[in-house]
Each structure stands twice: as structure tokens, then as C-alpha cells.
Specification:
The protein has 248 residues and is mainly α. It has 8 helices and no strands.
Length: 248
């Protein structure tokens, strides 16, 4: 999932990436809303709320929503900096390292949720921390898939579904020559399954948070860690195979 990039990726790899990471993102986003009443990845809603607070001159809430948007962007920027640096240096598995970073940064957030439950800073740290990590994750999958996969951007995916449905309708009516019908079906499947995974992940995330509270973040960290380490293992195995073939 985290090895090949862009045109080298096939539908199965993109589906695996989308479903696994969108499910985890959905769980984190929905459980955060359940726990503290804020969305960490919904930048459309957060910017709209920011504009509302600015219009009504509620400056302190406005600053908080501005901070959510800015740290999401900062997370995406960090992902891009890491990926660019890794590609310049020829670092294998750089995308896996980005997901590994997300997994490791989730652990202190779990500590905040579990140990600072009575603290006034809990909400701020959790929301801003998760927004940063959602930006990092979304940028990583956007770069590796050449923008075919976006695990936290449901608005964009819903728009893409509408576009592909319109194209499919034209194909069925004979208004299109059908040359792109296979690609059309692949895109529809990808976006539908990504949204479905985000939805199911959100349901599971809330149910687990009700049962185990902040330990959910540790579970999510473990899942991301497994995905990242698997990517790194496969990258190293591929590098060894390539080196062996060159020596033969």
C-alpha cells in the first residue's frame, strides 16, 4: 500500500490504502466529536464556523477554529516536507515513515485523553493534535496516489462520486463511446468504498470510545504502526531482491 506511487499503483492497492486509512480516520474523527464536540478533519465545517464567529465578533472561538485549520495545513505541510526530502535522498519507504510518524504521535494524544481528563487543556490538545495528524495522513495518501485517494476529504469524494455517476449515465445512454467505462467503474468503487469505510470506522470508533475511552487512540496507533511497518518490511524485501538480481 505504501510502496508504489502514482501510475505504478493499481486499483487493488488504492482500495486497500483507502479502506484501511479512511476507516482509522473515520474512527478518530467521530470519536473525537463524541468525546469533545469538535471535528478534527472537517475543514469545510471548521472554516464555516470560523466565518460565523468572525461575523459575530466572537474572537476567542474564532481563534480556536482558525488554529484547527492552520494545524491541519501544518500537518499536511510536514508530510510534504518529509516526502520531498525522502525522495531527494532516495529513501525507500518514505510514505511508510510518514504513517509511522502519525502512529507514534497518536500515543501522547492518548496519554492526554487518559491522564488529563479533568484538565481544561484536554479539549484543545486533542482537537489540535488530531487535526494535525489528519492533515498529515491526508497529504500522505494524496501524494502517493496522485490525488486519487483522500482519506479524510468526504466532501471531495462525494463530489467525485457525483461526477462519475454522471459519466456512467452518459455511458449507459450511449452518449459516451464507453472507452472510459472501466476507469469509471474503478473510480466509483474506490470513492464509494472510501466513504463507506470512513462511515463504518466512525461507528466503530464511537462504540469503542464508549467502551475503552482514550485507549481507542492506542488501538488506532497500533493499527497505523502495523500498516507502516508492513510497508517498510516490504520495501526492504524488495530492495534486497533488486540488489540480488543486479549481482547475478
Amino acid at each position: 500500500m505504501l510502496i508504489t506511487q502514482g501510475a505504478a499503483r493499481n486499483e487493488r492497492i488504492n482500495l486497500n490504502l483507502a479502506c484501511s486509512l479512511a476507516g482509522i480516520a473515520g474512527a478518530l474523527n467521530a470519536s473525537a466529536f463524541y468525546a469533545v464536540g469538535f471535528f478534527s478533519a472537517n475543514m469545510t465545517g471548521n472554516v464555516s464556523t470560523l466565518s460565523d464567529h468572525i461575523a459575530t465578533m466572537e474572537w476567542l472561538p474564532a481563534l480556536f477554529y482558525l488554529a484547527i485549520v492552520l494545524v491541519f495545513i501544518l500537518g499536511a505541510a510536514l508530510s510534504s516536507i518529509m516526502i520531498n526530502a525522502g525522495r531527494r535522498r532516495g529513501t525507500p519507504g518514505i510514505y511508510a515513515y510518514s504513517i509511522l510518524t502519525e502512529a507514534l504521535l497518536l500515543l501522547p494524544l492518548a496519554g492526554v485523553d487518559l491522564l488529563l481528563a479533568a484538565s481544561a487543556w484536554r479539549v484543545t490538545i486533542l482537537v489540535l493534535g488530531l487535526a494535525f495528524l489528519m492533515g498529515l495522513q491526508n497529504a500522505t495518501v494524496t501524494r502517493i496516489s496522485d490525488a486519487r485517494v483522500r482519506t479524510t476529504h468526504v466532501s471531495g469524494m462525494a463530489t467525485d462520486i457525483g461526477i462519475e455517476l454522471g459519466i456512467a449515465l452518459d455511458i449507459l445512454r450511449g452518449k459516451d463511446d464507453g472507452a472510459h467505462s472501466i476507469d469509471n467503474r474503478a473510480k466509483l468503487r474506490l470513492h464509494l468504498l472510501t466513504i463507506g469505510s470512513f462511515l463504518i470506522g466512525g461507528v466503530i470508533g464511537v462504540l469503542l470510545y464508549q467502551a475503552i475511552a482514550g485507549y481507542l487512540l492506542i488501538v488506532a496507533s497500533a493499527l497505523l504502526l502495523a500498516i507502516a511497518l508492513r510497508g517498510l518490511h516490504r520495501t526492504r524485501a524488495l530492495a534486497k531482491t533488486t540488489a540480488t538480481r543486479r549481482l547475478q
